[in-house]
Design goal:
alpha/beta, Rossmann fold, Ribosomal Protein L25, Chain P, 3 domains, seven-stranded mixed beta sheet, 27 strands, binds adenosine-5'-triphosphate, binds magnesium ion
Length: 564
């Protein structure tokens, strides 16, 4: 698929085609000026960022035009559904910042749907088919070859009615009978070729228990639920476009006034380097290729929340990619850009050293501690400043020192100066090595005239590095996350299994990292910028005295350079 990478627009965007349609409907006085939408997830998994795109338009349209949006759980298949998923879906919608008017379940309408099915049977528009799934599939034909009628198509109405009741009483085993709508086996639209509308399932339902054994199919439930609720605009993804004639056919059979819901389709969100379907995500969870639905590498909202992505960043990204009528792939680096943009504006800058080595300032008095003023966020003055403790021994990044450095290396190397962020300019004097030649300590001398407020405070040196005072540091574990898959479109790798195309470096755990004291009381999910490194947040695994941070996103996109 083609990768779209829309340019970032600073200006307010123009209306998308869905907003235009709603505005036209309102102008024409359709639905008595009412706007009602719904978000209809199936509770068979956690929501992913694709769902966020649907949520933003469903709830967003209602908000923008003074309407309402209901949350409706499409729970018509008890085999795959679970209350755990219902709870997580509600949590994720709230986290994104949206409010539903009502919560409904398709199962609330099982009786109404049953009555409607009986009505179709009585009108000779539905019949019980006793053929196997294979036989039914064989008779379907192809898009260019008409299907053939089932031998049961014209069975007497009474017989169908009796069998339909048996399908629901438990007398009929699963797979032995289905109810089909009698529409047109020669229709050019395959969905109109006598679609199955009820099947038998003997597994108890998470809400209705064992009351029902005959369950409506998605197509039979969806539009009718829209109709029962008074939905005006039923928005969904493009794959449902071919279902629309069937949606309309059922509504035609139900209508008893001028009111009818209308289905409109938009493009799915597909992201590079991941998969975007609950079924595939469940597979990753079940095969233990990730730690769970909320693994920070997952494209689920629970995973992104844990990773440190914010609702604002996700919504900003969705706004940038927009709503169209053609499917494509969205570049994950655009999402990462939106995350950086949002966090840059709002989070405090702190010091974290991922791979520490000790720097000793040999001319700094032993036992002395100074408080260095540091600005919390240069992008936001209102966040103020704080002080950070400075002393003779500091943790710095191992790769901020090099004994034999090339000319363009502007960090610590013997004889050269660097500035310690918010502190002094120091000149490197050497290092100590162990028996194997590994550097274990770095030495430097500080220049007391270069602290903020001193005469040489503004003296220019080429490099600035970050640090954490050794006696004032906290230990931390840092989890460096990267893309889950090595390839842009994992589903295009048809003959490969997921485990063969996973990025082996999608999680690198670093222990023994050092962070400044300020982070002592940070709570799970709090976001920070570790200066010079990236954006990080506190993982819920974090405990007092055993801090755990997740890398949300690096400061710069380095993927292209390092990709295999
Ligand atoms: P999945 O294949 O991941 O299970 P689904 O379409 O079966 O997705 P539902 O729970 O049935 O998931 O979807 C709820 C709503 O979210 C539907 O209106 C659907 O069109 C929309 N949706 C699902 N995936 C995406 C996506 N990738 N981009 C935009 N909208 C999506
Ligand atoms: Mg689905």
């Amino acid at each position: 698929m083609k990768i779209e990478n829309p340019t970032v627009e600073e200006n307010k965007r123009s209306l998308n085609f869905i907003e235009q349609m709603v505005e036209n409907d309102l102008k024409e006085g359709k639905n008595d000026g009412r706007v009602q939408t719904r978000f209809p997830p199936e509770p068979n998994g956690y929501l992913h960022i694709g769902h966020a795109k649907a949520i933003c338009i469903d709830f967003g349209i209602a908000e923008k035009y003074g309407g309402t949006c209901n949350l409706r759980f499409d729970d018509t298949n008890p085999v795959k559904e679970d209350v755990e998923y219902v709870d997580s879906i509600m949590e994720d919608i709230k986290w994104l910042g949206f409010h539903w008017e009502n919560v409904y379940y398709a199962s609330d309408y099982f009786q109404q749907l049953w009555d409607f099915a009986e009505k179709l049977i009585k009108e000779g528009k539905a019949y019980v088919d006793e053929q196997s799934a294979e036989e039914i599939a064989k008779q379907k034909g192809t898009p260019t070859v008409p299907g053939t009628n089932s031998p049961y198509r014209d069975r007497p109405i009474e017989e169908t009615m009796e069998l339909f009741h048996k399908m629901n009483s438990g007398e009929i085993p699963e797979g032995k009978m289905v109810l089909r709508a009698k529409i047109d086996m020669a229709s050019s639209n395959m969905h109109m070729r006598d679609p199955i509308i009820y099947r038998v399932i003997h597994i108890p339902h998470h809400r209705t228990g064992t009351k029902w054994k005959a369950y409506p199919m998605y197509d039979f439930a969806h539009g009718q639920c829209d109709y029962f609720e008074g939905v005006t605009h039923s928005l969904c993804t493009l794959e449902f476009e071919v279902h629309r004639p069937l949606y309309d056919w059922f509504i035609d059979q139900l209508m008893d006034s001028d009111y009818r819901p209308r289905q409109t389709e938009f493009n799915r969100l597909n992201l590079t380097y991941t998969v975007m379907s609950k079924r595939r995500l469940l597979q990753l969870v079940q095969d233990k290729l990730v730690t769970g639905w909320d693994d920070p590498r997952m494209p689920t909202l629970a995973g992104m929340r844990r990773r440190g992505y914010t609702p604002e960043a996700i919504k900003g990204f969705i706004d940038k990619i927009g709503y169209t009528k053609y499917d494509g792939m969205n570049d994950v680096s655009l999402l990462e850009f939106a995350v950086r943009e949002d966090l840059n504006a709002r989070v405090a800058r702190v010091s974290g050293v991922i791979d520490p080595i000790k720097l000793i300032l040999t001319n700094y008095p032993e036992g002395q501690v100074e408080e260095m003023e540091t600005i919390n966020n240069p992008e936001d003055e209102s966040m103020g400043s704080r002080t950070v403790k400075f002393s003779r021994e500091l943790w710095i990044e191992r790769d901020d020192f090099m004994e034999d450095a090339p000319k363009k290396y502007f960090r610590l190397t013997p004889g050269k100066e660097v500035r310690l962020k918010s502190g002094y300019i120091v000149k490197c004097t050497g290092c100590k090595k162990d028996d194997d030649g590994n550097v274990v300590e770095v030495y430097a001398e500080y220049d007391p005239m270069t602290k903020s407020g001193m005469p040489e405070a503004n003296r220019r040196v080429k490099g600035t590095i970050h640090w954490v005072s050794v006696p004032h540091s906290l230990d931390a574990e840092v989890r460096l996350y990267d893309r889950l898959f090595m390839v842009e479109d994992p589903l295009a790798e048809k003959d490969k299994e997921f485990k063969d195309i996973l990025n082996p470096e999608s999680l690198v755990v670093k222990s023994g990292c050092k962070v400044e004291e300020y982070l002592k009381d940070a709570s799970p999910l709090d976001n920070f910028q570790f200066q010079r490194i990236g954006y990080f947040n506190v993982d819920p695994d974090s405990k007092d005295g055993a801090l755990v941070f997740n890398r949300t996103v690096a400061l710069r996109d380095s993927w292209k350079k390092t990709s295999k």
